[in-house]
Design brief:
The structure is a homotetramer of 381-residue chains.
Chain A (H helix, E strand, L loop, with lengths): L1 E5 L7 H11 L4 E6 L4 H10 L11 H10 L6 E4 L3 H13 L3 E4 L7 H14 L3 E3 L7 H11 L6 E9 L13 H6 L2 H4 L4 H17 L3 E9 L10 E8 L4 E7 L10 E6 L2 E6 L5 E6 L5 E4 L7 H5 L11 H18 L15 H19 L5 E2 L6
Parallel strand pairs in A: 1-2, 1-3, 3-4, 4-5, 6-9
Antiparallel strand pairs in A: 6-10, 7-8, 7-14, 8-9, 10-11, 11-12, 12-13
Helix pairs in contact in A: 1-11, 3-4, 4-5, 5-12, 6-9, 9-12
């Protein structure tokens, strides 16, 4: 297969990660791109990626149109630009009949997100939103444990995502990542909840299947002069009576990329940490906790399906990326849309993206209303 | 010195812990008691504790009065009965001029708590509320790090206390601890927040010195038919702008006694877990985290003062109990009242107890008001 | 009961630990002592311990003789002096009919050790050698797992004890502990193997019951000018075909008191670390490892019998000391000699001590013979 | 670039890992192969790898000869067959002027190994032996810490590699990996030492630069009827006085792939574990240990050079493979031979391979001589 890239010029980090993952599974070749609106940067990036000059485009709309007409046009596009450009770019490719893989958060408003989801659905196109952490085998194992009923009824979810990289005003010292993420125009209504709170929301939803009913959130901007939130306390009530707490934070000095999930049910609990993703603690009531390891004994089919190395040979984040891309690319080949809770948990879709965008807006709304409970139900297509 | 015990008959667990700690430092002999209102149990407990029959009393009031008149009367009393009896028992001993060590939560209402604090103050008596976890050397080290300014301004506090022992309806199967803790008459307005939420509140206050301004709490009773809360999500805003989250939970299957504290400042963060209390993670901005160990290098005076064994020779909870009792008993000998943030952090006092009781009521009040922010400022004597 | 102390003057650390443990269980009162050969230090220590002047003795022999004749004489003696005095002191008390608790290593030669063991046996006296680490509940759990056959046949034992306190020439800078331990006259033929290698030997024997057949050891003195070993590599062959490796080391910079044990059998393995003694990893073939916790689910009777606090409330080294003293003192009361592998593993005896002394000599012998295999079988009474 | 593969038919695991790593960095395309001596398997593997039928060869010698003559011939070959075929295969490609990447252990005898090294040197060819674990960034950081003198003089090295996969007689139940590794004809004089003991030897050498002088080894075959060793205790004396212990083991029930390294110097120590490769413990004398993290603060140039993801985004074994292949492929492009301790530690070479083969033979020799010390000095070209 062939794919194109929107974004990825000098200074971008995540585009290279997408490419490495796709290369790792030899799923597709990067053959076209609109890497930057700056002509020189666009050309330079193309050279770096070995993309032929005639397939380097000045705009994503031109890229979408022209690739759609080529016999050897791209099978899918990867979009890794700042949030505010996602909607228009995704739309351009969908309208030209090209499957899309887009970074999260999907876009700036729920309406935009639903429009993209609808467009994809109506045109029979595939759409992945790259919530990569669901690609880890043991996250899929966690989901299988919940689904199989081994946790009983879920009571409490504790999830968090502490980072430290915005503890100082990095947006003032030339950090490009910090600049756009803290800029309301490019990032939308939220920095921290949008950037990493959505990962928590997606992870919890993926593993537990729980549906949020109400949200009470308190967003804070600790760094003086920062225009958006850099930390948040979010309490959620789920349909059915469970309660959860999400703590995304970008000023947690000493922490790196600490996404972690703990789910407590009536019969058992699970604990998983992204920074050491090859182990999953599983504790049944009245039994000592067991340490499940990727590739190790007692795992289910989902974990086995998405494991590339034997136990004890650690898999990292690249392998998680490879997993969601393998699912996505296989689905493209076979035109299989993702379905919830089957086929060993394929890839995150546009509706995952839409749910994330609504989550961000719900949090902001609650926070502005002095942390009052607001409706947190997922959007419906 | 000599002391007496109120509570501690068969089925009590904590009375024996108090005694072991006091024995461990040879601070005082147990010579009197009112161990149970049941005459036979009272006698049996006395025999077990080697307390002479003439100093076994049918009521704490008689005990207080008669011990106060003896030449060899007790120097202090230890009160380990259910919450609802604390106030009257403490009062009886204070009125008879006897120093008091009482379990937490101190009593059922803030007024009662303040009355006890006032009584102690006015009579020049010492009053310890046994928030034992502040006795760990590395908790004192954590406080010293905060005080010394090494964390900078505190931004976020994450504290939790997951346990699993009330995951089922233990109060229906003869578990005495569960029976009284889930009974509003004996336990007061809260089970979980009162029993372990107060430990969180005290730990955070002890280490950070932060003063709560507002509280938004959601208390839940997951076990059907339970009359009080068994889990809570509590968000707190502190004076000065920091924010915190406390999660006490007694239905967290797979967890034992997981009190833990994380404090994130502008310059550094600390992390400590009660179940492995001999290590403290300390991470300064821009530096790799260091693992401070009890007795190890780079500790301050407070940790050194309250350490009994060389590094690598683990100290457990008994040593923490011994520490607060050593501070209390030394204070009795020298009639030194505890003072905040000096003398290497002595022992928790009646005002710590009062603050805890108000915290419980504030949480309940917020929860009943649909988690609205309520005033959470500490009580004033 | 009453006991006396030999050793324990200023500068001694371990005597206070013995006393704290005995106090913790209210097992006996310290009423007599020969704390130092220096008269002033002897008096000062007595005052510190609240021992009456008429029961402070200038020599252990006088102490033994005079205490033996008193109606209120001591029930047992605790000996905490340097190694070279153990034999004579133990002998004095045994000959006067007094039960003995002595620090390890028991004495300087195997003959001495066996003589003490014989004396105790012939006089019907109890003799504890304070290999304290066997007092931890999870070490007893480990033994129960081996005994019950759950590990299958043992194949490999990996045990180690890294410390760092002798990484520099502490004996030259006034460190009393270092001075006598590195002095052949006081310490015997070995420093490191004698001081902590014996703990490894005892721990392995206690848990596995394996009997050493052959030893190949390489002792090293890394610090220039040091007269005895400060590190050793010891390979052992056990009766039945298992193999083991012991690594005691006192120059392991960065390590504190890292005694750890791993036992691998045909069916399962266990791993335990002294610095976090409340957990025991247990891994059965074909199953994910489980984390057993002190006080937690799935433990056997031995661990339960010697546990003082509920799970999650950490017990430390004092509790392990209390356990061996509780077993010893109960045995004194009931005149029960320790028996192997029953009564929930009582206390380490004179024969444990003798085995340790022979182990030290076997290691030294092998090392001097260029690490040749030497006979390592245990001594026989 | 283009490469060919020898080995990799159905049942092979490691060939796919080589390919994934090379794909991950888009370094070269797999265009030729001799995947199996079985014609059908050879064809099937070729189809799986998308290798054109005319570049699938019945023998490695034919492959070497014919690829050498093509204009679009392979730039290098990857050899992943059992040990006994390495020598002939490597030789064939070297003689035809093709750079080689070969699995470890390099071959069956030291003479063979040196012959290959000489051949490569004389022909100016590059030769990598895939000791992959040296590719981890924090292993390179460890080396930099040693080189920079921060550990002082090294005294003790403790290294181990416990696995459990040969705890039963897997060679009798159709496990292909087990069958050839336990077969002296295919595996050579050793199974366990050859397969994983060599990884220990290489890791220690890479990090510390220490040169072995003497070896005392005890090899054991725990599983009845097994023809080669499945566990070993190896003590080594290094030039300069340091001592080390290596424990490779394939019957360690409960362990997966536990390569770990600890190095203790006069000034500091380091500890690293392959199963959680993104952290490195570094403890300086008199300071609390610090936890270095891949991508985190305080790392040197080597770790930075070979890091692909920001801190907290775990890298696994694939990234380590990618690192050695990136170094190897860059060296091919620029015809740079690896040099010790410079250019940020490139890739392991034929002389690493030769040293490993001699290590295996030294261990076997010592073990057969009742664990006597034997010469363990590295081979010289």
């Amino acid at each position: 297969m062939r794919y194109g890239l929107v974004g990825g010029a000098a200074g971008s980090f995540i585009a290279g990660v997408h490419k490495t993952a796709i290369d790792m599974i030899s799923a597709a070749d990067l053959v076209a791109g609109c890497f930057s609106r700056d002509h020189e940067k666009n050309k330079a990036a193309a050279a770096g990626f070995n993309v032929a000059p005639d397939r380097v485009y000045p705009s994503f709309s031109e890229m979408a149109e022209r690739e759609a007409t080529r016999d050897d046009g791209i099978n899918f596009v990867v979009i890794t630009t700042p949030n505010n450009t996602h909607y228009a770019a995704c739309r351009a490719f969908l309208e030209n009949g090209i499957d899309v893989s887009c970074d999260k958060p999907l876009c700036l408003t729920v309406d935009e997100a639903l429009e993209l989801a609808r467009l994809a659905r109506d045109k029979g196109l595939l759409f992945m939103v790259t919530y990569v952490y669901t690609g880890y085998p043991l996250v899929r194992q966690a989901r299988e444990l919940v689904e199989s009923g081994q946790l009983g009824d879920i009571r409490v979810v504790m999830a968090e995502y502490p980072q430290s990289w915005l503890a100082d005003k990095a947006e003032d010292s030339g950090n490009i990542q910090a600049m756009w993420r803290t800029d309301p125009e490019q990032s939308g209504v939220s920095c921290c909840v949008g950037d990493i709170g959505t990962h928590i929301e997606n992870m919890v939803h993926f593993v537990t299947g729980l549906e949020i009913e109400k949200i009470s959130a308190t967003l804070t901007s600790f760094v003086e002069g920062r225009l958006l939130d850099d930390s948040a306390m979010i309490t959620v009530k789920y349909k059915g009576g469970a309660i959860g707490h999400y703590w995304p934070c970008q000023v947690a000095v000493g922490r790196e990329n600490g996404l972690s999930l703990r789910v407590f049910g009536t019969e058992a609990s699970i604990e998983w940490q992204q920074e050491n993703p090859n182990v999953l603690k599983f504790a049944r009531k009245g039994h000592p906790p067991v340490i499940l390891t990727r590739g190790g004994p007692s795992l289910g089919e989902a974990a086995a399906r998405w494991t590339r190395l034997p136990s004890g040979h650690p898999e990292g984040l690249f392998a998680a990326w490879a997993n969601i891309y393998e699912a996505f690319c296989n689905s493209i080949k076979n035109k299989i849309h993702n379905r919830a809770f089957d086929e060993f948990y394929l890839y995150p879709t546009a509706m995952d993206g839409a749910r994330g965008v609504k989550f961000v807006h719900d949090c902001v709304k609650s926070s502005r209303a002095d942390s009052a409970w607001v409706d947190g139900t997922p959007p419906v297509l």
